[in-house]
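Annex B.
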Amino acid sequence: MIGAAPVGAVKFHGARAVAVFGIVLLLLVWIGIIASLNSEHQRVLADTRADTANLARAFDEHIQRTIAGLDQTLLYLRAEFQQDPVHFDLNRSVANNVILKRVSVQIARIDAKGWLADSNVPGFKPVDLSDREHFRVHRQDNSDQLFVSKPVLGRTSGKWSIQLTRRLDDTNGNFAGVLVISLDPNYLGEIYGSINVGDNGVIAVIGTDGVARVASNGGGAFLGRNLDGGAVLDAVQARQAVTVQALGPLDRTERIVSLRPLPSLPLSVLVGRAKSEALAVYDRSRTWHLLIGGIVSFALGAALLVLYRMVKMQESIAADLAVKKSELLASRVRLRRYVADLERIAEVAAHDLQEPLRRVVAYAQLLSSHVASALDDEGRGYVAHVVDGAQRMRKLVKDLEAFVAVDQMPESDGEVAVGAAIGTAMDRLGEQIRAAGASILVDPMPSAAIDERALTEIFTQLLDNAIRYHAHSRKPVIRVSVACEGDQLVFSVIDNGAGIDPYDRVRLFEIFHRLEGIDGHSGTGIGLAIVRRMVEHMGGRVCVESQLGEGSTFSFSLPRRKPVHLTLVGREVQAA
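histidine kinase: predicted structure tokens.
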């Protein structure tokens, strides 16, 4: 049909819409999960970088204070020595210094030849230390600078230490030896180790030469070892305060490392946290996110699959319905054409048969009059049959014309008196009423917005039917009543006739369905069909109730489109 969408296109569009919707929805779910995980990953790394930078800053300040305190002690001891080199007593000078006892392994003085001349280690013995780096540096360089050595194993104390040294000069300004405070790396290592930077984290002090002076989480295993290069060593040598992500130069563990160079000293504080440990909580969160995302995706996918199948099924049903609808519309068009053709044929037949039938009836009656004396009883009977058949044929054509004309029935222009329509119907049936000796009682009738001609025809057919099928044993008594039921007027024609068999009652209002009358003749089979068609055309319905041998009640309802006013219009016709 013109304007109808192709069935296949509609089906494909619906299935594609569900599929696209499902894919987009799943993509949005996973984009949200990935974006959330990425944001969490970046936040954890940013927090770790901030933590390591803050710790590096704190340890930077701590090591500076520690070294500054030790250097002040060296300067104090050097001043006492230079005042009286002969009577200088090292042990007396350091006896009351609590800090030195906690952080140092040994405080010693090396003479100008490189021999250990004095020490706070009880029972020390002179040892040749002229090969030590700190002795050679001060002997060759007369600048007044604090020197921090690489970790060395003490020959007197037998412990690893970091040498903080100052040059000694005699009263003439000549090299007189070196004052040494051996810093215990384990002291700082224990402090650093008490800070939780993870099992694989590290806190260290590294020189610009790439050698580790102090280290936590490994302690002596890292002391004195050289960095193997890389971003950490480059930053240490460049004395940069940076936070980088790099492999550990000693154990190749990937860490987030913060470096802080010590002012005026060739040292940098390093704080590193293993990336895997920093991301441990994130990894658990990621596992849960992925698990929940998988469950949600599975549930959502299952729901979308069910929805997809339902849409497919619905579209299949819709396609079948569309086919059936198109077939139904085509059948309706054909039916309307057939009905129109039949109505046209009936209308033409009814009009065209009226005139020939009128002539047949007229000439049959004339023939009956002219030849009545010339014919015997049998011949007159034949002529009577011709006249009766012609009249019945004429009645059939008139009823057929009335049946066809129902669709052209005009709307009511105003209210009519129902009682007047009943009176007209009774006038039409006057001869039948008198012949049957019928009594017709009419209750007070309202006025209503109903087509008068149609109403007259309805009552004519119902009264004619009640008279025609009255009982043999009694005269017909017919009553016409009305009742108001909401917005409906219900009219009833009640008779005391022979009643209707239940078998016949089923098809009573069908066209051409005939019952045998009291005189042995049946009707045309169109009267009650006309009644039903007219009533339904005006928006009502018709029904019948009957008891065989007791009578029948034909009722029909019509909408009360305007307010009705009951008037005491009654009528009773008694047969003469």
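The first helix runs from residue 7 to 83. The longest strand covers residues 160-169. Further annotation is deferred to the next reporting cycle.
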